Amino acid sequence: MTTHVAAAGAVLAAEPGLDAFGNDPWWITLIKALVAFVFLMVCVLMMIMADRKVMGRMQQRHGPNRFGPWGLLQSLADGVKLSLKEDLIPRGVDRAVYIAAPMIAAVPAFIAFSVIPVGPEVSIFGVVTPLQLTDLPIAALLVLATAAVGVYGIVLGGWASQSPYALLGGLRASAQVISYEIAMGLSFVAVFIYSGTLTTSGIVEAQNPVWFGLILFPSFLIYLVTMVGETNRLPFDLAEGEGEIVGGFMTEYGSMKFTMFFLAEYVNMVTVAAISVTFFLGGYLAPPPITAFWPGANEGWWPVLWWLGKFLVVMFLFIWVRGSLPRVRYDQLMQLGWKVLIPVQLVWITAVAVMRILQNEGAPTVAVGAVAVGFVAVVGAALYAGARSAARRRQAEAEEAAEELRLMREDPTYGGFPVPPPTAPHYGSSVPAEAPRLNRPAPTGKREEVTGA
Hints:
- The longest helix has 46 residues, at 365-410.
- The protein has helices at 2-14, 26-58, 74-84, 95-112, 139-160, 164-195, 200-205, 212-215, 217-230, 242-245, 255-280, 288-293, 302-324, 330-360, 365-410, and strands at 119-124, 127-131.
- Helix 2 crosses helix 11.
- The chain has a domain at 80-328.
- By secondary structure, it is an all-alpha fold.
- Strand 1 and strand 2 (127-131) form a beta hairpin.
- The chain has a two-stranded antiparallel sheet with strand order 1-2.
- The radius of gyration is 31 Å and the shape is globular.
- The chain has 15 helices and 2 strands.
- The model is unreliable at 1-13 (pLDDT under 50).
């Protein structure tokens, strides 16, 4: 056992910047793991409450305000209510998969948070250790791997429920996550090119003094879109659209199993927000204006405050988007992922790679600027062509609608239900066709009295 631990420590030490990991006492590791778990659970409780309170204010109504001061304990009350509900398992489900699916959805999100750096090295009870549970030479790939595994819980939950609505929700979730996960992974490629490492701590240190969110703004912007799609949040919650497929993949779940799916969604929100802070917003590094007049802003426990402030801003963005944008159609969701985000990312990564090579080779700034201008020109031309194509499509649809309207005005029966003429024979009966009434008398305007004989 000791030999394996020593070998793992040697591997970590071989990667630059990882010599501080793998040497902590077991109780320090246990404390950091417990703090990370408690932080995630508290964030879930507070985010559920903030989700409802902030959206209530945006919609000019009160959010939860009964349970606890200012409604702060409403999330706790919801958790207790769900845990006390009767736990039913529908007849005919795949019992083992049905029970395991919520856990498969929730566990990967907890694992991904283990490689997030919250601060630099500090002293905890006399032991100098980084404020990060662990780091790996391929920590960034671990984040993508856990995101890919998490969707299995959703797909298996929909499949094991033996319900058409749940199965449809699971299939939608799998297609959505695959398309948006590709764009998310491509947004990380530009970060890897500029940082030169896959370790999360190394990526944070590479953003001193300029954050990647500024110099790699297209990647940051696309990541913000993909993180909303990855967590199945509005306007991309097509996997559980209540107006279309009841409750999506969670239709047949209740009590604690439903709570696990609910927990997985919010823990994923916390994780992707922490990843955005780590990869694009400088991690625990203080904003540049602060470091200009405070040299010790990135030392001690102060970086935890900077990280938490950035994290809360990204979490508020989730609520803002949910309360502002309507739900998109599923074809629009897929079109955005495959026809917009992925092509733009491919062109952008090519431009970033060329610019980085020119910088490493000592090329003049003019050459690097020319590549940037070329990228902007290519994207602008593509957007212009897309806008022209959309305009032509709308014009064709308008002309078709106008032609339909003209035909309906000329012929009132155009496009209507095919009603047979009154002179046609009644099929399926022995009633003959009605003879045409050629000599019908003209109406006299007098009411005829009908009497029974």
